[in-house]
Amino acid sequence: MACNLNCCLLAGAIIGALLAIFGGVLIPVGNYFIEKTVKKETVIENGTIAYENWVVPGSPVYRQFWFFDVQNPEAVMENASRPILKQKGPYTYRVRYLPKESITEHPDSTVSYFQPNIARFEPDMSIGPENDTFTIVNLAVVAAPALFQTGFIQALMDVWIKSSKSKFLQTRNVKEILWGYEDPFLKKIPLANVERTVGVFLPYNETLDGVYRIYSGKDNTSKTAEIQSYKNKSTTSYWPHYCNMVNGTDGSSFPPFVSKGKTLEFFSSDICRSIYGNFDSDQLLKDIPLYRFIVPSAAFASPTVTPGNICFCTDEVISRNCTSAGALDISACKEGKPVYITLPHFLYGSPDISEGVEGMHPNEQEHNTYLDVEPTTGFTLQFAKRLQVNLLVRPNTKITPLKKIKFPFLFPILWLNETAVIDDTKAEFFRSKVTNKIKLLQLVEAVLIIIGSVMFLSFLVSFFICRAQKSK
């Protein structure tokens, strides 16, 4: 009888040990199969989950605009007072809802394509209609001295500005500011090669961005979705040295198996450069664990703080000889127009960057840029890209509306928030295909190890207790 009991206890301990060992073995084996499946499904080729969500974004993408309305226009134009600005918005457009065009697979495991630019107004998600008006800086008048720099031409410009009754400020509606309007001053210029229409995002609608060429990940998943070239080049022509390199992905996805210590690089044609995000926090979106990466203040810091930013400093006036932070001169990629990009309300900017206007209220929670990435697949399931568009205003003795300007300053026009969140249907699909399977495997591994360990210790202790009692 005692022998049978001891044998049973010993057998129980052995079974417990085997369960624990099996649970431990499942960890590398399970990870191997997860990795194999993920690598297969994240390759950008027809038939994979990644391809389906790459051709057309799996979640609706929106651009919200907030416009800066001048509250004291007469004082600004007559006395050169600082503009008092009040933001109004959002005015929301759906973007990126058309499939990529001219998709071509290449033998070197790359895929090329064009990204259609399209924007559809969403009245139900906006504070008002597209014909709401705002008082903003006159785009054509302010840009004229930068585009025509000789004194004689500027004197002629002033004649046409006066004859068109154009002023330093103007009132335009949402649609005109964003997508373009025929400017009365530019219509007066008797030159055939002068564009008569201006707008913050002109041209945009029904244009194509690219050509992009990215790695499919078929041969090397560590490069999945990374851009090999943009417009047939691996560099841009807007910045000197290493700053002109096209690095990373387009931000919609990254190579699989993202770690918290990784720096995620992505290229944005809106700001004509590559930028990066660092891990910030763990997030949970619709029961899917995510890593939040944010674009840090160091990306906008002056070269005195972040030396690597020196080649992004192409302006000496606003940057105070590259000692001020927060403003990026992108005039080189905007055909010479004095356009500067900042974060909304000059977030992370030096105090002198915003000294020309009043009404700025930077808030890190509302105005920073972040990407929420599912770490196993590298898919971005939620993001918010936030930018502010400004024009550089300079005093000019030749052009009447600019004669009273006291010093160069940045005049904010609007800021935008491009955002997307995975919808419920896609989230359920993602959980069933990825998250739930990983959770189930981890649960089975943990249960086997715990139950096996408890059985092994319990039966082993009982076995030795019985042996001890028998010997007595």
Descriptive tags:
472 residues, eleven-stranded antiparallel beta sheet, 19 strands, elongated, alpha+beta, four-stranded antiparallel beta sheet, 9 helices, 2 domains
Describe this structure in words.
With 472 residues, the chain is of the alpha+beta class. It folds into two domains: 2-37 and 435-471; 59-97 and 119-205 and 235-422, no CATH class. Helix content is 29%, strand content 27%. The protein has helices spanning 2-41, 49-55, 73-79, 139-147, 151-163, 174-179, 184-188, 364-367, 424-471; strands at 61-70, 85-95, 101-106, 110-117, 119-121, 133-137, 169-173, 181-182, 197-198, 207-215, 227-230, 264-268, 273-285, 288-294, 328-329, 339-342, 370-373, 380-393, 409-421. The strands form four sheets. Strands 1, 2, 5, 12, 13, 14, 15, 16, 17, 18 and 19 form an eleven-stranded antiparallel beta sheet that branches. A four-stranded antiparallel beta sheet has the order 3-4-10-11, with no helix packed on it. A two-stranded antiparallel sheet has the order 6-7. Strand 12 and strand 13 (273-285) form a beta hairpin. The relative contact order is 0.16. The mean pLDDT is 90.
